[in-house]
Amino acid sequence: xxxxxxxxRINNNDDxxxxxxxxxxxxxxxxTGDCVAQIETDKAVVDLEAEKEGxxxxxxxxxxxxxxxxxxxxxxxxxxxxxxxxxxxxxxxVTANRTALGPTAKARALIKRYGLExxxxxxxxxxxxxxxxxxYVAGRDTGSGEHQPAPARDERPSVPGILQELSxxxxxxxxxxxxxxxxxxxxxLEVEYDQGxxxxxxxxxxxxxxxxxxxxxPLLAYRLVEIAAxxxxxxxxxxxxxxxxxxxxxxxxxxxxVETLYLTVIQNAEKLDxxxxxxxxxxxxxxxxxxxxxxxxVRGATIAFSSMARWNVSRHIPILPPHTSLIVAHAAPxxxxxxxxxxxxxxxxxxxxxxxxxxxxxxxxxxxQPEDEKSAI
Length: 377
What we know:
The protein is α+β, with helices and mostly antiparallel strands. It is built from seven helices and 16 strands.
């Protein structure tokens, strides 16, 4: 029986992705895990892999085409001569009860803002999108002779200029900034500390494991994972007025590529020991710089760490990634003096006292156990 490969949802705010390149042709036999296509999301370029062994029967998308998330991109089969299912044609607008996917994240936010019910808003594609909600609201009669206003649009500046489309990476940054602005009660605080003990700890770790570079920043990020394991409240977000407690720790780590800032993700970081974490982070950084990230490399951060020390930045205030309550900001020492450790946090989830406790633990070198480098919080 033929089976489909659908466009996956890599980022919560992505309703479309761009098919950059096909790595397999119709009639090819592929093995499980073979790269069959490369897509570009708002945050990264990722490889799509064959989910099982079989023959590529039909490709439904073209290179450089923008494709909706969830749409069938390819059909595979156990035999090369298997028939491909015919697409379902429907000229009627799609309504909410015709799909199990539900509204997109942006659409849900607008539905809540305008006090709507999702099943009364018509839409034309596989899912209810923000554009569908805006169109419905703009044309809805409120009963008072006036139309409900659409979401505010930016005013055109008085200085002449040209409108240019944003790149997928820039769209991703816009979505992240919008979530930080519109959803979180974003706040920032910082503490000063002596980085010397951490540098010594990293040097000893590097020599013991024969590493080529200082693991200072990866070890600090791993320490954040340890702290989150002992204080689950910081590994959470707000959903419908309640705290949503994650059952795993996916550590988001910012990586600057040649032209793109990525939020890479170490999945299930709490299950790794320090050396495994350092090695995993090094590998994901190399893939980001080479633009060869996998879907799981940029998906589902639950807490995050950012550093601008390599550029000698002594203070920065990072943007909260969507659906996180804390991102730590590591910076370079000021004139070879005290260093600064800061954090942007969602005040809906955490208080200043909660974050100060995290930063104080983070600035202290843990007491390691020589046999496995595990540390106690």
